[in-house]
Amino acid sequence: MLYKSILYFVQKGAKSRQLHHMPKAPLPGEPTKPYTLTEIPGPRSEALFNEFSKIQQVDIQYFGDYQRSIGNYLADIDGNVFLDMFMQVSTLTLGYNHRSILGALSCGGNQRIIANRPALGLFPGLEWPCKIQNTLLQPCVAPKGLPCVFTAMCAACSTEHAIQMAFIKYAERRRCGKDFTDEEKESALFNKPPGCPKLSILSFEGGFHGRTFGALALSHYRYITKVDLPSLPWPIAPYPHYLYPLNQYEKENKQEDVRCLEQVEELIEQYEKTMPVAGIIVEAIQCEAGDRHASPDFFLQLQEICKKRSIPLILDEIQTGGGATGRIWAHEYFELNIPPDIVTFSYKMQASGFYHSPEYMPKQPSRVFNVWMGDPVKILMLEAVLKTIEAEDLLTHVCYVGNYLLRQLNTLQHEFSDLISSVRGRGFIIAFDMPCKDTRSKLMYLLRTKGVQVSGNGTKTIRLRPCLIFGEYHADIFLEILRDCLQELPEN
Ligand SMILES: Cc1ncc(COP(=O)(O)O)c(C=O)c1O
């Protein structure tokens, strides 16, 4: 495969000059280019949408044809074929219909695992502990220093259960190891203290951690997901808002870190009497807010604050984990002195849940629990994904192609400096800003008309989230179309 040959050169320490001359081609089964035959959405998508919206309130862009989608290309039911750089909200790791995943799901033994979805917290199969060891807990997969893992149903459930563990640990410590009192047991059933204590989790402005009630209280991105729903009055700290290019604004950005960290400390103090902070949750990269990166130093100091207060640092790697940044975990780039206490995952990992240090394991069973507690099918998929990542050295590949894409976008930024700014990224978590929301919408419309699927986040950002088998060949197709679109934009 193309990326295998790329990686051969990378592994052999080939110089970038040699990499430049590598063969470029589509992956097996892929078209050579994206193409569109209709307006987007096309007439069949429109008609189906009109029917479907009678039974479900949805925000469908178009209906996919998952029989015909392949590799980096998403086909729709109107015959259009898009170069997909959003990959189902960054959740598809190996693109569409990857042979390793299809193989895992059609393998005879696995069919019975799929057919008999067990209540994993009560009746897991014989193979379950071994499957977890060989996937989530592989030494090259589990975040260093976090040997325990809780499997969950979905991304938001990961957040939900992770914060439950943080609260339980906090209350356990306060109780000094004693058993629950009768008053605690009774009052808990009526949502009242002392059984349900007034505790909080500190989150950050612009953060996003999911749409279940606890997770939503920690999410501060789109009002539409929150308005009219009761929430929890937990503390929300400012998140660093850097100026770009980073090397020109080092001093200002450092000051920004200090400002935000001071606020974190102040908020913890402020809430201590009424609703003590039992943990801090933060994304490794704030994704929905517009790919906002904070410095490794910011995370290091945040961790210091947590340690000082004996509360957990919960790192949300739901969108950033699973190889998207060219490492399995984005926080590997921070080079923290000690592991974070809890790391949530989902999306590119296929399976959802969180890792945690042994000290967070609740003393009694059933405290953090639900019937399915995850899905064995997702572990089968993860197994196939991890084997492919290793066999094809996809993390090196993501770093190489990600850097290539960033360099080319920086060049475009010089050329179209009135349109593109703040090009930023790690691996395949890449973004750039447009002058305003309106110009962004126009660019996204043009890109889609020419067969490229990207996504907007934040107020004026375009985010790119290709899958791990996106190559330099695909990057060149995207860049050529992007350049055409930028030239066509009315402002230009
Ligand atoms: C960082 C992060 N955490 C959690 C979630 C889970 O959100 P949802 O409830 O939509 O699955 C998301 C979804 O985009 C996310 O980006």
UniProtKB/TrEMBL annotation:
Coiled coil: none
Cofactor(s) recorded in Swiss-Prot or TrEMBL: pyridoxal 5'-phosphate
Gene3D superfamilies associated with the record: Aspartate Aminotransferase, domain 1 (3.90.1150.10), Type I PLP-dependent aspartate aminotransferase-like (Major domain) (3.40.640.10)
GO CC aspect terms: mitochondrion
Domain of life the protein comes from: Eukaryota
Keyword Translocase assigned: no
Pfam families on file: Aminotran_3 (PF00202)
Reaction(s) this enzyme catalyzes, per UniProt: 4-aminobutanoate + 2-oxoglutarate = succinate semialdehyde + L-glutamate
GO molecular function: 4-aminobutyrate:2-oxoglutarate transaminase activity; pyridoxal phosphate binding
Keywords, comma-separated and alphabetical: Aminotransferase, Pyridoxal phosphate, Transferase
Any one GO BP annotation for this protein: gamma-aminobutyric acid catabolic process
InterPro entries: Aminotrans_3 (IPR005814), PyrdxlP-dep_Trfase (IPR015424), PyrdxlP-dep_Trfase_major (IPR015421), PyrdxlP-dep_Trfase_small (IPR015422)
Family: Belongs to the class-III pyridoxal-phosphate-dependent aminotransferase family.
PANTHER family: 4-AMINOBUTYRATE AMINOTRANSFERASE, MITOCHONDRIAL (PTHR43206:SF1), AMINOTRANSFERASE (PTHR43206)
Record's protein name: 4-aminobutyrate aminotransferase, mitochondrial
